[in-house]
Amino acid sequence: MEKNRELAKIFDRIADFLEFKGDSIYRINAYRKAARVIKDLPEDIEALYKEDRLKSIPGIGEKIASKIQQYFEEGTIQKFEELRREIPEELMVLLDVPNLGPKTLRLAYQSLGVRNLEDLKRAVKDGSLARLPGMGPKKVDKIRKGLEIFLRGQERMLLGEALQIGERILGHLSPLAIRISLAGSLRRMKETVGDLDVLATGDRHNIIQGFVETPGVTEVLAKGETKASILMDDRQVDLRVVKEEEWGSALQYFTGSKEHNVHLREMAKERGLKISEYGVFSIETGDRLAGTTEEEVYHLLGLEYIPPELREDRGEIEAAREKRLPRLVGYDQVKGDLHVHSRWSDGTADLEELAREGARLGYEYIAITDHSRSMKIAHGLDERRLEEQIKVIRDINSRRIGCHLLAGIEVDIHPDGSLDLDEAVLKELDWVVASIHSHFHQDATERLLAACRSPWVHCIGHPTGRIIFSRDPYPLDLDAILREAAATGTALEINSHQDRLDLNDIHARKAQEMGVKLALGTDAHHLGQLWMIRLGIGVARRAWLESRHVLNTYPLEELLALTKKGIRRK
Ligand code: DGT
Ligand code: CA
Ligand code: CA
Ligand code: ZN
Q1: Is 98's C-beta closer than 6 angstroms to any atom of ligand 1?
Q2: Using an 8 Å Cβ cutoff, are 404 and 364 in contact?
Q3: CB of 249 closer than 6 A to ligand 1?
């Protein structure tokens, strides 16, 4: 699937170039769409090309198909090469800076010679950007803010991205190693990841050689006897090969977090023990007492085994000592997805496909939650179309085509706090998610409180509205919302899309402590995004949640009973 990623990148870049040049929005969107379709394609694009089936891909037209063909025949796409000669590519990266539009960028390029990130930073700092026609301090302030967010994103990657890279590496190296595991922040399922850490035991030479030859490696940064570092998709991956008997200690050490390890080391010291990546040793005698497995390391310190997601020094060591760690919700305990879009609004899958895919994933249910009327660009459903959709869903369910589909909606919350659809249709639904999608800065707290109080709303979608690396949460009194959600029996979402993870771990933990139930939903718009539920489970585990706190672990009948009355004491 290497070529899928590469082609998607090229099409995205072409769209960037065209956007910068001020080309027609229609053409730009065609390339963007092609990039997205190819990226989410479950099949190998090269295979489709060889079988002459490019044009059968939904969303790929004649023109794009011929460009893909050119790519496989000539190794590149002519149009891409031309644009590259015309405009410096490092400039295109700046299109990803939030609040900096292509027009402003073009102006900065032509008037100030801004060609890269450094130039842009300087132009913001020395005031030259503010002096350009049509600019001014307010606009530049927004760009400065966007630049900050952008720089954070340059240093770190999304958990979902990291997981995909990590699994490609595991897939490639597993046959060569005796033991192998992800470590670091990725193993802890932190929402963003700096670099990937991989740990293995086995034949050093073979493993390290295999590692640097992993398909997709673009650069070998270092290659030694026991460790190596590579770049893959421009992201750094560190591998260490350790001795079999040191596996547990090494895995414990390199999983971190640093704060957790520091605390653990202090605790060990009080017990006359020294803990390192090589083992747990008696300070007095120097004897090595543990280190083959992680369990052994924790047990020797008088602790319950602490799952990686909890290792942030947020009270887990104290809890493990008192044997009161939560029994975390498991990755295999989720029985369904509670936020999925279909072709009826801005998704690409049809309802039957979703039912089948749900069954393939072993789900009991998927909630279909398309957008509502006022989301015009997303083809939001009005009452009439929603009624129609409910009928189709009931029909699919009666024919037992796949997993059960819950008839639902992601209903928009208006600026005045009212909902976007009539209650007559809302009350027919199995699952109502209410979300804010516009006018973010207008009374977000009041609007969410009103949604909690609505008797028809089961769940608040992506409650803080943040988008990782691109949009901060809207100003919100989250405590007030948690109190209202608890009082009204409204669930809060852990939106499990890699860009959102909203609520985050800290907020979700607080929600649970206040008696609020959590609902996981991928917000998938394509079949190829349903896997992101794992990210949501990761957040739930980092939030100390047990299965009873997470609605998706409830069997269908129980969930329906709850949504009909249980979670709502309204
Ligand atoms: P990241 O990569 O920024 O997302 O975060 P981590 O946690 O993966 O950090 P990284 O890659 O620097 O190091 C991996 C693990 O190695 C880290 O979680 C704990 C361990 N480690 C690294 N440096 C130190 C250190 O100076 N002291 C201790 N106790 N542990 C360390
Ligand atoms: Ca790391
Ligand atoms: Ca590292
Ligand atoms: Zn939404």
Answers
A1: no
A2: yes
A3: no
Ligand 1 within 6 A of CB of 157: no
Ligand 3 (ion): which residues have CB within 5 A?
Answer: 195, 197, 238
Res. 441 pLDDT band, cuts 50 70 90: confident
pLDDT per residue as tens digits for the range 201-239: 999 999 999 999 999 998 999 999 999 999 998 899 999
Phi and psi at residue 298, in whole multiples of 5°? -65, -40
Q: Is the peptide bond before 527 cis (omega within 30 degrees of 0)?
A: no
How much is the average pLDDT of 285-301?
97
Residue 332: both structure tokens together: 């295999």
**Residue of the CA atom closest to atom 24 of ligand 1:** 258
Class of domain 157-241 (CATH, top level): alpha beta
User: How do the domains of the chain map onto residue ranges?
Assistant: 2-155, 157-241, 247-321, 336-565
Asked if the model's pLDDT at residue 309 lies above 80, the reply is yes
pLDDT value at 500 more than 90: yes
d(CA 370, CA 391): 15
Query: For residue 340, is pLDDT > 80?
Result: yes
Q: Compute the radius of gyration of the chain from its Cα atoms.
A: 26
Residue 564 CB burial class (10 angstroms; 0-12, 13-18, ≥19): exposed
CATH 3.30.300.210 fits 247-321, yes or no: no
- Nearest CA to 213 among 168, 262, 252? 168
- Closest residue by Cα to atom 1, ligand 1, is 194
What values do phi and psi take at 301, rounded to 5? -85, 5
179 by Cβ neighbours in 10 Å (0-12 / 13-18 / 19+) ranks as middle
Hey, whose CA ends up nearest to atom 13 of ligand 1?
184
Cα separation, 375 vs 381, in Å, equals 8
Q: Is 243 exposed, middle or buried (0-12, 13-18, 19+ CB in 10 A)?
A: middle
Ligand 1 nearest atom to the CA of residue 190, by list position:
4
CATH architecture of 336-565: Alpha-Beta Barrel (3.20)
Is 2-155 CATH 1.10.150.110? Answer: yes
Which two structure tokens, joined as six digits, stand for 95?
């299109």
- The answer to whether the CB of 488 falls within 8 A of the CB of 455 is no
Helix intervals (H) in 256-315? 258-270, 294-300
For the Cβ of 261 lying below 6 angstroms from any atom of ligand 1, the answer is yes
User: How far is Cα 496 from Cα 562, in angstroms, rounded to an integer?
Assistant: 22
- Retrieve residue 482's tokens: 């948690």
DSSP classification of residue 328 = B
pTM equals: 0.85
Residue type, 474: Y
- 366 phi and psi, to 5 degrees? -135, 130
- pLDDT confidence of 137, banded at 50, 70, 90? confident
Q: Given the DSSP bridges, would you call strands 273-276 and 217-223 parallel, antiparallel or unpaired?
A: unpaired
Instruction: Read off the pLDDT of residues 58-79 as tens digits, 9 standing for 90 and up.
Output: 888 889 999 999 999 998 899 9
| Separation of CA 526 and ligand 4 centre (Å) | 14
